From TrEMBL:
Major localization listed first in the record, in broad terms: membrane
Name of the protein: Glycosyltransferase family 87 protein
Keyword hit for Transmembrane: yes
Protein origin, superkingdom: Bacteria
Organism: Streptosporangium jomthongense
Amino acid sequence: MKSAQTMPVALPSLGARVTPYIPLALFGALGAVLSFLWKWPCRFGGAWNDGTLQFTNFCYTDIYPLWWNEKLSEGKIPYFDYPVEYPVGIGGIMEIFRRIASSMADPAVAFYDLTVILMALCLIVGVVLMAALAGPTRRWDALWYALAPSLILTAYINWDLAAGALALAAMFAWSKQRQWLAGVMLGLAIATKFYPVMFLGPLFLLTVRTGKWKPFLQTVGGVAASWLVVNVPVMLAAFPGWRKFYVFSQERRADWGSIWYFFGNKQWPFLGDPARLDMLGIVSLGACCLAIAVLAVTAKTRPRLMQLCFLTLAAFMITNKVWSPQYVLWLIPFAVLARPNWKPIALWQIAECWYFFAIWLYLLTQRPESAALGITDDTYFTAVWGRVITILIMMGFVVRDILRPDKDVLRQDGIDDRSGGVFDGAPDKFRFALS
C-alpha cells in the first residue's frame, strides 16, 4: 500500500494578488481627479492671484504661493540658499520640481501641477496600502480614504499625502513582519511630516505587552537610519536652513484650527495665556499619551495596533497648537482601520467639511476689503469644536471596543490583529491588572 503524498500548495499568481486592488486604485484615481477639479477656479480661473476669490471659491493651496514665498522663483535651493519651513522630505520634493518647472512657460502653475501628480500617485498608493492592511474581507473600507469628502476638499493644499503614503507603507511592512523596511518607511515619513513619529508609541506599548523586543528594535533602527541618511547631509551642509522647520515649529504661536487659538481668542485665564502655550500643549499631549499607555497595558484583551495608532494620532492633533484643514488627511486611514463604522465617520466628515468652508470664510474677515463676506469668530469656532467633538466621539468608541472586544467588528470570526504583524495572536508577556 502506497503512502499518501502531500500535494504541493499552489501560491496565487501575481495577477491574482493584484487584481482585487485594481478597482480600489481606480477609485483612488477618481478621488485624485475630483480633488483636482475642486481647484478649478484657482487653477484655471485665476482665483489664486486674488486674495478674495481664492477664499470665496474655496480653492486655496499652499503650493502655488510657496513658489514665490520660498524663493523657488528666484532659483533658490531649499535650506542651502533659503531656509524653508518644511522637513527635508518636502524640501527635496520642492527642489526636484523647482528644477523641472523653471524651464516651463508658467513655472508656478507647473510647480503646482507636478506636485498634484505626485500627490495623486501617493493617494492611489495609500488607498491600495490601506486596503491591504484592512485585509481581504474589509478591502472596500479603503473607499473612505479614496473618496472621503474632506479628502477631495483638502488633498492638494500641501504635501501631506506623501507622508501618508509612507506611513501606510511602514504599517504594511510591519504587518508583513518586515521590520527593517517598516522602520525605513517610517523614518522617511517622519522626514516628510513630523506626525508619523507618534506611531512609535503604539509599537512600543504593544512590544511591552507582548515582549517582542527584537522586531521593535529593528524597526527603531530602520527609523533612525533612514531619517539620518536623509537629514544629516543637509544638516552638515546647511544647518541654519535645516533647523528652520524645528525653530519655526517651536516658536509658532497658537494658530487657526487649534483649541489653543480658541482659548487665546476668548482670553481664557491660564488656557489662553500665550506664555503657557508650549507647556500646555506638552502637558495635555503627555496626559493623553499616558492615558493611552494605561489602557494599552491594562485592557484584558491586547488592543489592535491600528486602534492605538488612531488614538495617539488623534491626541496629537487635538492638543497641537496648529490644526490646518489638510491635517484630516493624516487621520482618515487610521480612523477607518481602527473602527470602520460609517455613522461616527460620516459625522466626523461633516464636521471636517464644515471646518474646511469655515476657515476660508473666516479668513475673509481678516482682510478689510472682504470682511463683509466672512463669518464671525463664534461661527468659526463652532467648526473648530465640531472637529474636536466628533473625533472625541470616535476615540470613545475605539476605547469601548478595546475594553469590550466583542464590540470590535474587526475581531469577529477569531481574528486578532490582522495588521499587527508580530503582535497578531501573540500571548501577553506583561499586563498590569487593575482588578
